[in-house]
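One chain shown below:
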Amino acid sequence: VDLSADTTVEPDLLRLIRSVPPRDSFPHASYYIITDSTKVVLNEDGSFEKEIYFLAKIYTYMGKRRLANYKIYYNADFQKVELLRARTINGDKAMPIEPSSINDITPPEYSDASIYGNLLAKVLSLPAVSESSVVEIHAKIKTGKDAPIPFGAMEVLVRTEPSRKTFYEVDYPKGKKISFLSATGAPKPTKKPGMLRWIIKSYEGVNYEPGTPPLREVFPTIFYSASKSWADEAKFIYTHISPKIVLNDTIKAIADSLIKGKKGKEILSALLRFVQDRFTQINTKFEYHGFVPHSAAEVLRNGRGDSKDLSVLLIALLKAAKIPAKPMLISSYGAKIFNIPTAYQFNKVVVSAVLNGKTYYLDPSSQYAPLNFLGPAAGGYALLVDLGTKKLTKLPADIPESNMAVYSFDIGVDLDGRAEGSVGVTASGVPGEKLRKFFRYKKKSQIKQTLQDAASKVIPGAKFDGDTIFENINTNEGMASVQFTIYAEQYMIRQGNMAIIWFPELPFELVDIPNISLDERKLPLFVDYSRKIMLQNVIKFPADYEVVYAPPMQNIKTPFGTYVVSGQYGDYSAVYNIAFTLNKKVIKPEEYIKFKELVKNLHKKANRIILLKLEE
């Protein structure tokens, strides 16, 4: 594409650019959106076109980094991009992009997904971009009538950057019904026969805050779909996935060998584990790669696949074992699913199987997931891909114990301050996945080094003593656990007739602690799944000492979690237990201060120390 003649800055455009507020009007912003316009046209034959126009004034170096190499994603197998304008405006001069600066690349994040089509990013490397430039992009993305993606979208209209005007229009044949929804503060659309139009003006933007929920739950978002109901959407996806679930003799033979001698849930676990262990997981996105998987036989031959591919293979294996199963769409990161029939709200395919009248959920693309473990998706909604589907499926909610880590320390200390003892870690759910990753498929030397690193975290300078017990590390079922022994030359710190013992630190960070670094929040904090941490400390100190200070017992209960401390001191030992739970996925800004106080208990030094005194 040669746009070299596109050097004129029209007077109206120049006036618009000159009206942009100065940088100090939006100190948090990296650029200011002058116009962000999208127009989607659905044609009678099912093809559709998306026209975008983007005009923005750069404020900062970060804004320059974000916009100097503008990317348009598309799948070349069923989409084409027509570039109408791409240029930089500095002052009253426009510098169009050079043809050599327009390149199609495979996005690095999808580099291993070439078997799902020719996904490309058209990278527009704009000329002479500075921290005060204006970037102008105009393009059309045309999607063919037989594309393996349904017409519809989930679009976040505005995000953190301020915007003068954001415009989104959907045009469709008159007489055709389009489902739509405005959510999270998005305005209601202007409606005319064959047209929906959303406009947001003078959006102030917001400062980015860590731990923000999925964008659809924070920023104005719209949904639209050609499907009238979830039944229509499920049918569209079913017609693409179902023909690929085909048995052959090889698949039957594999299933027979895997389930031989097994009963009930053991059959499910064996087939699930085969797919999890033997096949490489590939990252794809429905919006770009569509909903057409490879056949079960192709997946078996390829040795890799995305979530829909691996689900197809697992369903075929279950079918060979005479266990009915269907694909199911979930949001693996726990995003809210709105009741508007567009599958773009989901990002992953799992399997729903029925055995002896009970439903089980199997995730073949999560290597360490046991039966019925769906991570942050638990408690949300899913779409069962079946011709009989009429509504969304409510998934079972998790409880804090579903994602739990229990740390046990039994440490003895002598008069010289030396320590030795055992450390135990038991985990389920997300923490269980993390613990298994530390040790499964590792060489002995790697395991030894991991345990030595863990010992030195428990007590600075401590050494791994060599004794280790593993349980359920090489299986995905049950609680994963590891127990090992350590010793340290210096643990108890003596000062005259006084001594200090710090409670042991965690050997493995298995439970994510929400980010509470901000003094206050304007956006919600996303916790994403329930969790529980238990610390069980038994510290045995010399008989010559008595306890003069120990952390107080506490029982703090809030709507979003608890912090409970129990224990006893005496007889030359201290037993100190902490139970910390979080049971709410989203913390509102007005709840944040109390939530922060709850979490801070885990880090308070006064809650982690024992002060001893020599008995006279």
Notes: The radius of gyration is 29 Å. The CA atoms of residues 568 and 575 lie 5 Å apart.
